[in-house]
Amino acid sequence: MRALLAGWRRQALLALTALVAIVASASAQAVEVDNMRLWSAPDHVRLVFDMSGPVNANVFTLADPDRVVIDLDGTDLDFDIGQLDLDDSAIDQVRTGVRESGGLRVVLDVNRRVAPQSFTLAPNEQYSDRFVVDLNYPGESAVSDPIDPIEAMVRDQEMAAQRAQAEASATGQAPDPQEARVAAQPHPKRDIIVAVDAGHGGEDPGATGPSGTREKDVVLDIARKLKARFDQTPGFKAIMTRDGDYYVGLRQRTLIARQQKADFFVSIHADAVRSSQPYGSSVYALSQGGASSETARWLAATENESDLIGGVDGNLSLDDKDEVLRGVLLDLTMTATMNDSLATGGQVLDQLGRINKLHKSSVEQAGFVVLKSPDIPSLLVETGFISNPREEAQLRSSSHQAELAQAVYSGVVAHFRQHPPPTSLLAWQRDQGRGGASNEYRVQSGDTLSQVAASHDITMQALKQANGLDSDILRVGQVLTIP
C-alpha cells in the first residue's frame, strides 16, 4: 500500500511539474508589445505596435461613447502608454487592460467618427514584427489647404479635353465638333498647382547622416520652404503631400497630387550611400525602359522599398478603356509627360548647380514609384548626400535649405513661364504683351474656334496645332498665332 501511495505521489508531482513547465513556457512565449508609436495626419492617425513576434488581433468599434477596441491575443504590454503624444489626433485617451480570456486589450477613446483599418507587417532591417491600426477620418482631405473648388472644376475641364484629344489621336477619330462652336469663355486666370512631396516620414525616417540627422526631417523643412515660395508667387499654389511627421504611401502621394489637380509634382529627398565621400545634388525623372545608370537603379530600388516599411500600396487604373487603347493612351500621355519632366528637370538642375555641386551634370532617369503618374510631369530631387558629413551639416542649415528650395522653385517657374497652361494666369499675363503682330489674333467675346479658323482661311486642326491647344474652347483675351 505504501508503495502504491508513493507511486501516486510521484505521478502527481510529475504532473504538477509538467503543468508548471507548460505555464512557464506559455508565459515565456507570450508576445511583448515593446513600443507604441503614433503619427497624426490631416485625414487619419496611425498607431503602430512594435511586437516581439507575430500576433493575432481583432479591431472593432463601440459607440456611446465612441471607442476603438484592439484585442491582441497572447500578448503582454511592456510600454508606458503615457509616452504617446495624442496631440492633433482623434484619440483623447488610450487605456489598456488584460482580457478575461487572456491577452491585451487596448481601448482608444476617440473624439470624432473614424473608420479603422489594420494590418500586420513582417520584420525588416529597421523594425521587428508590427501591428498597424489606421483610424481614417471619412470625408477629410489628405492636405490641409486643398485646391479651390472653382479651380478644380477648371482643371477637370482641361484634363477631360486633354484625354479626349489623346483618345482622338490614338483612334484616328475626329473630336466632337460641338465644342468648336462654343463661344469664347471668360479667362479663368487659374493658379498653376505644384504638388510638393517631402520624402519618407513617420515610421520611415529615410537615410540617417553620420551625426544622426534624419532625411525625413530635413526634406520636410525644405519642402515647407519650397511651398512658401510658390504660394508667394501670383499664379502659383503649392500643396504638400505630407505636412508633418507621418507616413504617406508612395502611390498615395501621386494620388494626392491627382486629387488636387496638380500641374507638376516634385519630390524632395536627401541621398545616401555607404561611403562618406560622394556629394552633390541630383535630379531624376522617370524612365520607362529602366534607369540610366547603375546608381539610379540602386537608388530607385531603395526609395521604392519605403512602402515595405509603411505598408501602403495602390495602382493606377484605366479600366474604362480596352487593353490596346489603354496601352496607346498611356504611351502617348507618358511620352508627353516625360518630355515635360525632362525639360523642367534641366531647368532645376541648372539652378541647383549655381548653389551646390552637382553629383551628375544631366537629369538622371529611374523607375521611382512617386514619378509614375502618367499625366503629371514629375521630378525627384536629391538635394545632397546626407551620408557626407559636410553636406549633412549644410542640409541642417536653414539658409542652405532656403537656397535649395529657391533653386527648385526657380527651375519649375522658368519652365511654366515658357510653357504656361492655356487657362493659367501666366498664360493670360503673357498674352497681354502680344496681339499686335500680323500673324496674331486676340480672341473676342462671342468668338468660336470654327469661326476664327474660317475667317483666317485655315483648318481648325492647323490652328490648334500652331497654338498647342488641347481643347476647342477659346478664352476671351487669349492670343492665337495664325499659321
Give an account of the 3D structure.
- It is built from twelve helices and 17 strands.
- By secondary structure, it is an alpha/beta fold.
- It has a six-stranded mixed sheet with strand order 11-10-12-15-13-14, with helices on both faces. A five-stranded mixed sheet has the order 5-1-2-9-8, with no helix packed on it.
- The radius of gyration is 29 Å and the shape is globular.
- Mean pLDDT is 85; it is low at 15-28 and 312-323.
List the helices and strands and how they pair.
Blueprint: H1 2-29, E1 31-41, E2 44-51, E3 57-62, E4 67-72, E5 75-77, E6 91-98, E7 104-110, E8 115-121, E9 129-136, H2 149-171, E10 192-198, H3 215-231, E11 236-240, H4 250-259, E12 264-271, E13 282-286, H5 294-304, H6 306-310, H7 323-352, E14 364-366, E15 378-385, H8 389-396, H9 398-418, H10 425-432, E16 440-442, H11 449-455, H12 460-467, E17 479-481
Parallel strand pairs: 1-5, 10-11, 10-12, 12-15, 13-14
Antiparallel strand pairs: 1-2, 2-9, 3-4, 4-7, 6-7, 8-9, 13-15, 16-17
Helix pairs in contact: 2-7, 3-9, 7-9
